[in-house]
Amino acid sequence: MCARNSIYTNPKPCKHLADYKLRHGFNTYDSIPNCLKTTPNGRTRVAKHTTKIPRCSFCDRYQGRLYFCLMCSSLWCPTHILLHTQSEKGHEVAIDMDRSELYCCLCCDQVYDPDFDKVVVCNQVKDLPGGSKSKTNRFEASGERSSKRKRLDSGIGLDLKKSKMLVSMRDRRAKSCYPLGLRGLNNLGSTCFMNSVLQALLHAPPLRNYFLNDRHNSVQCRKRSGEKLCLLCDIDAISSAMFSGDRTPYTPAHFLYSWWQHSSNLASYEEQDAHEFFISVLDGIHEKESKIRNSGKDDGDCQCIAHRAFSGLLRSDVTCISCGFTSTTYDPCVDISLNMDTSNLSSSNANKPIKPDEKTSASTLSGCLNLFTRAERLGSDQKLHCQNCQELRDSSKQLSIRRLPLVLCLHIKRVEHSLVRKISRKINQYMQFPFSLDMTPYLSSSIVRSKFGNRIFTFEYDNSNSSAAYEIFAVIAHSGMLESGHYVTYLRLKNQWYKCDDAWISEVDEGIVRASQCYMLFYVQKLLYNKANEDSSFVRISPRRDPFESTAGCS
After folding, report:
1. SS3 content of the chain, % helix, strand, coil (to 5)
2. pLDDT for residue 330
3. 388 CB-side CA count, 13 A
4. Is 192 a catalytic residue?
């Protein structure tokens, strides 16, 4: 599960950017802070020109997105930026004015450079309300932070007692028509992977209730442990900020720094994989709560919030082909990784985006789940020792779900590896997925009964205490190429979909969600989803209330 088969590995360096830095060094980067401006809502933009409306140097029109040439400081629209590059040698690198991201005009793609991102992040943090212009108050990548350093007013130093107060949706409608809890997250330099996962996690009903009901008290935690950095405390601060009613985009800089300390192997300004980040955060929550509880239980019996919400149990049956002896093992899991069902597509079409309205075979979530639970014969090089035959035998393996979690996370594998060509590519294939999901066909009880009937193992495989009906509440989608791209999250609140694209929140219809290249799907048990919708008008405070109390019989 922790193997690095992610969409994002280390992105390949852009040759044109490397040539530019070789010729000019960091001279241009030194002047970039003078061109950057952080707006009141937390967005960092290029504000070089003083004209009221920036326009393209060629067509004199404003066509939405404009690019700022690093060499000559001219502005170009997406249509004419390539024309400028081809006519002026050495003008290959530009800055996206709206997002403050580097763009290679010849590669026609965003490019990553840690030196550039450090400049943008430092400028963004120090320009936020409450930030200092001094060097000591910049975002520090060295790993040392002053204990006397002022916290950002954007949420890092929120008064938790005030943020936990009862907040009514009715009182907030004058400010925004969006439901409480919808708030953008500022990009700190290639951190869309982090923002997309945080949006999904903080809107998962068990985790949302856990933090809003003060089940993790940050003040007591710091007094008890004496640690300045705590992943749980930082998630608690973000949760309080998200549900405070403030619509200004929040900057999760302190959380990013804490996560770097927990996952030092991933601590960099490079883009990471959203699924790998998701697993890392759950591991961090589990590790912290285990220290607090002094618990040494296995993941399957762990009572930390991460495992109480996401932990399920997989069953693996390995059957000897010769004698039929079956060996059964159980493994805890916090998500299920599914292969795309590309059996109905040719190899050429598998890598092309397929629109929902096209009349062609498409992968479906049910097909992926059927593929996951289908018995497969192991190869001759995978012979296993049969306890009955007492020798190596050919065998078959079948997976099923023994116990379902409260929150079901389905990870769609969109990377295909070729052992012959020794290359990897992203699968851009469209996949159909339902908003209401019945997991009954994939339970161990259903799989066993389909093979042997209802007359045997009736009680051993009974799942009557667990609900198999789920409702979708979040979708993390990835767009772009294998080496680069962008993550966004779609949230479903009261049957209305909202797109969370870093700092930007917008209302979208379900057709947009269905047409997205889904990478992670988040479902919650239907009873809990309905209960969450009923309670979404208010954020209640109950001293140390158990966030699972309202879902008795579902866990």
Report:
1. 30, 25, 45
2. 93
3. 12
4. yes
**Three-class secondary structure assignment of 302-353:** CCCHHHHHHCEEEEEEEEECCCCCEEEEEEEECCEEEECCCCCCCCCCCCCC
492 pLDDT exceeds 90? yes
Backbone phi and psi for residue 465, each to the nearest 5 degrees, phi listed first: -85, -5
Angle, in degrees to the nearest 10, between helices 192-202 and 274-293 = 50
Q: Which residue out of 69, 216, 486, 500 is catalytically annotated?
A: 486
pLDDT digits 0-9 by tens, 127-137: 544 444 333 33
Residue 4 lies in a domain: no
With a cut of 50, say whether residue 459 has pLDDT above it.
no
Record the pTM: 0.67
Structural contact between residues 113 and 36, judged by C-beta atoms closer than 8 angstroms: no
Among 500, 482, 359, 381, which residue's Cα sits nearest to residue 430? 359
Number of H helices, E strands in the chain: 17, 27
Q: Which of 192, 304, 320, 333 is catalytic?
A: 192
Looking at the structure of the chain, the number of domains it has is: 2
Hey, what's the torsion of the CAs at 191, 196, 197, 199, to 10 degrees?
120
Euclidean distance between CA atoms 518 and 488, whole angstroms? 10
**According to the model, what pLDDT value does residue 227 have?**
67
Give Cα separations from 27 to 22, 72, 132, 441 (angstroms).
11, 14, 24, 62
**227 shares a domain with 95:** no
Is 150 part of a structural domain of the chain? no
CB atoms within 10 A of CB 9: 16
508 is written with which tokens?
A: 């979208």
- The more confident residue out of 471 and 245 is 471
Q: Residues 503-518: what's their mean pLDDT?
A: 94
Question: What is the span of the domain harbouring residue 101?
Answer: 15-127
8 Å CB contact between 354 and 431: no
Q: Name the 3-class secondary structure at 56.
A: coil
Residue 153 has what pLDDT?
33
With vertex at residue 190, the alpha carbon angle to CA 186 and CA 196, rounded to the nearest 5 degrees, is 60
Asked whether residue 118 falls in the same domain as residue 253, the answer is no
Q: Is residue 496, in this structure, part of any structural domain at all?
A: yes
Whether the predicted pLDDT of 39 surpasses 90: no
pLDDT digits (tens, 9 = 90+) for 65-108: 788 888 888 888 888 888 888 888 888 888 887 777 888 888 87
Tens-digit pLDDT profile for residues 235-283: 999 999 999 888 889 999 889 888 888 776 665 656 788 999 999 999 9
Please give the structure tokens belonging to residue 455.
Answer: 């007359």
Ordered alpha helix ranges (H), 146-217: 160-163, 169-172, 192-202, 205-212
**pLDDT tens digits for 373-391?**
999 988 777 888 888 888 8
Task: Say whether both 109 and 247 belong to one domain.
Answer: no
Q: List C-alpha distances in Å: 466 to 313, 404, 469.
A: 12, 7, 9
CA 220 distance to own-chain centroid: 29
